[in-house]
Amino acid sequence: MSKETPTILIADDHSIVRRGFKNLMALRIPHVKVEGVADAVGLRKRLAQGPRPDLIVLDLQLPDGNGMDLLPKLCANASQPPVLVYSMNPVRIHGVQSMRMGAMGYVSKEASEEDVVAAVQCVLSGKSYHNPELPVRRSRSGAAQGVDHDPLARLSGRELMVLDLLLTGQGVKEVAEKLGLGISTVGTYKNRIYEKLGVNNILDLQTAVQLHRKGAH
């Protein structure tokens, strides 16, 4: 960490998560400054105002924006800070895709305090954080490696969000309401997911994902 007082910007719609993250940093990395925003609008506004934070800690589910849509835009802009994804979304479903989109790390909200601190310190030091649950590593150039045989890597960010909700037992209508999409749009995403993973129903989908998780260990 080159700066004496690096700034971390956490984007999460739950105030208790932002407060808990700030308290953890104050306890474990007391020399960092933590700021928080609750939505995508607040994130964009803060980034436009400056000064530039040294790290963005991004939740994938914001009330006014899909983190999987925001992530590639943030990572494609060299003037923006590195991004560490901090999410409840399953690591093995969304982690690889997040890294492929340019995130410097992916850590679950269910992770231990030690893992969260390690991820933050790693990215602040200019390195990518390799989550041990992920079957992917990043090359020195930043490109993700080891995902050629990952069937989930064929899914887009939006398809992954739909997949995640389908696996919880939610129907197309419920998923559409959750993501703010049309029912027909979600139906299209569902059909694409089935086609890409070679399944025909939700039970086969669940089995395919479970087999992938076991094989990735």
Name the descriptors.
single chain; 217 residues; alpha/beta; Rossmann fold; Arc Repressor Mutant, subunit A; five-stranded parallel beta sheet; two-stranded antiparallel sheet; 9 helices
Please tell me the CATH architecture of the largest domain by its name. Answer: 3-Layer(aba) Sandwich
* Percent helix: 40-55%
Beta content? 5-15%
Shape: globular
Radius of gyration: 17 Å
Report on the biggest sheet: 5 strands, parallel
Number of helical stretches of at least 4 residues: 9
What structural class do the secondary elements suggest?
alpha/beta
Average pLDDT level: 85
What low-confidence regions span 5 or more consecutive residues with pLDDT below 50?
Answer: 136-148
CATH class group of the largest domain: Alpha Beta
Q: What letter string, H or E per element, gives the SSE order? A: EHEHEEEHEHEHEEHHHH
Q: Order of strands side by side in the largest beta sheet?
A: 2-1-3-6-7
**Might you state the CATH topology name of the largest domain?**
Rossmann fold
CA-to-CA gap between the ends?
A: 32 Å
**What is the assigned CATH homologous superfamily of the largest domain?**
Response regulator
Quick one: how many beta strands?
A: 9
Structural domains: how many:
2
